[in-house]
Amino acid sequence: MSHLPPQPLSPLDGRYRTAVTELGEHLSEAGLNRARVHVEVEWLIALTERGMFGSKPLDPSQIASLRALVSDFGQAEIDELAELEATTRHDVKAVEYLVRRRLSSLGLDSIAELTHFAATSEDINNLSYALTVKAAVTEVWMPAYRSVIALLRELARRHRADAMLARTHGQPATPTTMGKELAVFVYRLERIGAQIDATEYLGKFSGATGTFAAHRAADATADWPTISREFVTGLGLGWNPLTTQIESHDWQAELYERVVHANRVLHNLATDVWTYISLGYFRQIPQAGATGSSTMPHKINPIRFENAEANLELSSALLASLAETLVTSRLQRDLTDSTTQRNIGVGLGHSLLALDNIRRGLGEIDLDTVRLAADLDANWEILGEAIQTVIRAEVTAGRSTIEDPYALLKELTRGKRIGQDDLVAFVSALEIGDEAKARLLELTPAGYIGLADELVDYLDA
């Protein structure tokens, strides 16, 4: 058997690369290394701005040159870091050496020893992960999430009055509208999105065991906690003052659990839309050139929603595992998080791919109002709820002496199919007030939707 040329092992880096490529800008190894360089450079600048250990503030051109190492970070730096790490066998140390090389090229050897000063690798890493995850969520994942919500909101408003038979337990039930059902998902997803938006991305910068020991040994007069807090918050992160060698990752667990919650609601959406397609409530719009089955040419398969289901399950499994394991570190440090955090992009990537499929899938379906109407008209027995409820109100008001209205309607409708004529005859013979009887005689399955149409307005409340 011949050998293939090197191939991506993950489908996210192969078949589905175009759908998730934006995440690679932040959550790839290169994205992480760029963030590490960013943290190292900003720490250098922060120390020199304070004139620590006799250093002098860098002039604007020197600061710009150092920051260009981040803004211009590209293939040359990726290759150089790979070369350095081949010798150091340590990724963060390779970053430190890269920064030192740039200092030398800029004639700044005098401050070279302030590179990575009093910092443990985790000081650099925890801030780098916080920066990259924050960017990935706010700049890539959340916009995709919001685009799905926006599309659902549009569909909810468009179909707010389109009555359909509900199916509690899969059986015919009190009608609703397609718009109201989609609005339920909008409301759920918006609520979770607000929680994700409120994520507090935390960082620490306090040394090998979180005690500022090396800092204090170098300068016992400096207010190192304040310096640390100002540095971390200056990067756009929250400051965690109490840590071991690592930042405790609780914010990551909270974030990933919220994304998993969003995934599971999206999974519910995908399975419901799939079912509505199966029932014929939604028609699938044929896509030019697409094939549904290799042997059955008539088929249009709901593959967008099936693909979304699978990717949401994979994402949730991985992110739930991260949330569970990242909050535990033996004593002051172990390295299990070093491996697991490298898979953050994979977890978010499968979710992003699912969002892309849901968005595309929602754009490839159309509501079949004729099918909705036919289904409603075939299930007049669902009006049994309305009839027994009106009878109970009439009994309470003294306009009827009917005993056990629920049992009466149960006997008429349970497990049976009855038509309009049957219900008209039944209602006409009821001992209830004329006004109530008239209201029931005017009622149809399609008109029995309560406030479903109006409830959609709560999306704007």
UniProtKB/TrEMBL annotation:
<comment type="pathway">
    <text>Purine metabolism; AMP biosynthesis via de novo pathway; AMP from IMP: step 2/2.</text>
</comment>
<feature type="domain" description="Adenylosuccinate lyase PurB C-terminal">
    <location>
        <begin position="329"/>
        <end position="449"/>
    </location>
</feature>
<protein>
    <submittedName>
        <fullName>Adenylosuccinate lyase</fullName>
    </submittedName>
</protein>
<dbReference type="GO" id="GO:0004018">
    <property type="term" value="F:N6-(1,2-dicarboxyethyl)AMP AMP-lyase (fumarate-forming) activity"/>
</dbReference>
<dbReference type="InterPro" id="IPR047136">
    <property type="entry name" value="PurB_bact"/>
</dbReference>
<dbReference type="InterPro" id="IPR008948">
    <property type="entry name" value="L-Aspartase-like"/>
</dbReference>
<keyword id="KW-0658">Purine biosynthesis</keyword>
<dbReference type="InterPro" id="IPR024083">
    <property type="entry name" value="Fumarase/histidase_N"/>
</dbReference>
<keyword id="KW-0456">Lyase</keyword>
<dbReference type="Pfam" id="PF08328">
    <property type="entry name" value="ASL_C"/>
</dbReference>
<dbReference type="InterPro" id="IPR013539">
    <property type="entry name" value="PurB_C"/>
</dbReference>
<dbReference type="InterPro" id="IPR022761">
    <property type="entry name" value="Fumarate_lyase_N"/>
</dbReference>
<dbReference type="Pfam" id="PF00206">
    <property type="entry name" value="Lyase_1"/>
</dbReference>
<dbReference type="InterPro" id="IPR000362">
    <property type="entry name" value="Fumarate_lyase_fam"/>
</dbReference>
<feature type="domain" description="Fumarate lyase N-terminal">
    <location>
        <begin position="15"/>
        <end position="308"/>
    </location>
</feature>
<dbReference type="InterPro" id="IPR020557">
    <property type="entry name" value="Fumarate_lyase_CS"/>
</dbReference>
<dbReference type="GO" id="GO:0006188">
    <property type="term" value="P:IMP biosynthetic process"/>
</dbReference>
<comment type="pathway">
    <text>Purine metabolism; IMP biosynthesis via de novo pathway; 5-amino-1-(5-phospho-D-ribosyl)imidazole-4-carboxamide from 5-amino-1-(5-phospho-D-ribosyl)imidazole-4-carboxylate: step 2/2.</text>
</comment>
<comment type="function">
    <text>Catalyzes two reactions in de novo purine nucleotide biosynthesis. Catalyzes the breakdown of 5-aminoimidazole- (N-succinylocarboxamide) ribotide (SAICAR or 2-[5-amino-1-(5-phospho-beta-D-ribosyl)imidazole-4-carboxamido]succinate) to 5-aminoimidazole-4-carboxamide ribotide (AICAR or 5-amino-1-(5-phospho-beta-D-ribosyl)imidazole-4-carboxamide) and fumarate, and of adenylosuccinate (ADS or N(6)-(1,2-dicarboxyethyl)-AMP) to adenosine monophosphate (AMP) and fumarate.</text>
</comment>
